[in-house]
Design goal:
α5 crosses α8. This protein is α/β, with parallel strands linked by helices. It has a five-stranded mixed beta barrel, surrounded by four helices. About 30% of the residues lie in helices and about 25% in strands. The chain has a single domain, classed as Nucleoside phosphorylase domain (Rossmann fold, 3-Layer(aba) Sandwich), CATH 3.40.50.
C-alpha cells in the first residue's frame, strides 16, 4: 500500500485545497481541524520529526469550511543533515490536490518594532546556509525561479485577513541559518547588513521544494525572541517554545480569517 493509499483509506478521496506546515509551539492548530490524523511513523517516506514542540502528524479535514492538509511537525536540516528531508511530505500534499502551501515558523527578530509575540509576513528570504534541497535532482526542473517565491497575491490576502482582525503583519526578509546552535551576534550583524529582518532554522528548503513542485507559497513567522546580541534575554529552545504561544493566538486568527475568505 502506498502512502497515498494509506492516507485516502483513512481520510477519503476528496482533494485538499491547501497544505499548512506548523512551526514550534503551533501544533495546537492541527487540533482545530475536523478530520483524521495520521502519525508520520505510519506514512512511508515521512521523516521522524525529532524536535520538541512539534507534533509529527498529518491531519486532513475541514478548517473554516476549507479542506486542508496540516503537517503538525517538520523535520529540519540540522537533525540529520538532509536539506530535502521534507520532500516526501510536500510531494504528498501536491498529490492530495493542494495547490497552495502556507508555512509557519518561530523566528528571531532584528527589528525592535517587531518584538516577541508579534508576527512577520515573509516577503523574501536569504539562504544564509548555502544549502539547497534540489542538489542531486537530475532534471532541469532543479533550476527553479525564486522571484516572487512568496506569492504576492497570497501575501496580500493574508495581510488583508490580519488587517480585518486588527493584527499587525509587517513584511520582512527571513534568513535561513542551518542550526542547531543559535547564531552569534557577529552573524546577526552580518545578516542585518545583507537585508534580513528575522532569522530561523527552517522554511527556506520547504519553500524551494514547494516552488519546484509548482505550489504557490506564503509564510508567516511568529517572533519568539530578539536575535542574538539585540537584547539581554537568554536565547534557547525552551525560551522559543515558551514564547511561541504569544504569537500563535494571533496567527490562528489570521489563518482562520484567510480561510473563511476562501470558503
Amino acid at each position: 500500500m502506498t502512502v497515498l493509499d494509506t492516507i485516502r483509506a483513512r481520510a477519503g478521496d476528496a482533494p485538499v485545497r491547501l497544505g499548512l506546515i506548523l512551526g514550534s509551539g503551533l501544533g495546537h492548530l492541527a487540533d482545530a481541524v475536523e478530520g483524521v490524523g495520521l502519525d508520520y511513523a505510519d506514512l512511508p517516506g515521512f521523516p521522524h520529526a525529532g524536535v520538541s514542540g512539534h507534533r509529527p502528524r498529518l491531519v486532513i479535514g475541514e478548517l473554516e469550511g476549507v479542506r486542508v492538509a496540516v503537517l503538525g511537525g517538520r523535520a529540519h536540516y540540522y537533525e540529520k543533515g538532509d536539506p530535502a528531508v521534507m520532500r516526501a511530505p510536500l510531494e504528498t500534499l501536491r498529490a492530495l490536490g493542494a495547490g497552495t502551501l502556507l508555512l509557519t515558523n518561530a523566528a528571531g527578530s532584528f527589528r525592535p518594532e517587531v518584538p516577541p509575540g508579534e508576527l512577520m509576513l515573509i516577503a523574501d528570504h536569504i539562504n544564509f546556509s548555502g544549502l539547497n534541497p534540489l542538489i542531486g535532482e537530475p532534471t532541469d526542473a532543479r533550476f527553479v525561479n525564486l522571484v516572487d517565491a512568496y506569492d504576492p497575491a497570497l501575501r496580500a490576502a493574508l495581510a488583508g485577513a490580519a488587517a480585518a482582525e486588527g493584527i499587525g503583519l509587517p513584511e520582512g526578509v527571513y534568513a535561513w541559518y542551518s542550526g542547531p546552535s543559535f547564531e552569534t551576534p557577529a552573524e546577526i550583524r552580518a545578516l542585518r547588513v545583507l537585508g534580513a529582518d528575522a532569522v530561523g532554522m527552517s522554511t527556506v528548503p520547504e519553500v524551494i521544494l514547494a516552488r519546484f513542485l509548482g505550489l504557490k507559497v506564503a509564510a508567516i513567522s511568529t517572533i519568539t525572541n530578539m536575535a542574538a546580541g539585540m537584547s539581554d534575554e537568554a536565547i534557547s529552545h525552551e525560551h522559543t517554545k515558551a514564547m511561541a504561544p504569544l504569537g500563535a493566538a494571533k496567527l490562528e486568527r489570521v489563518l482562520r480569517r484567510y480561510l473563511r475568505g476562501l470558503a
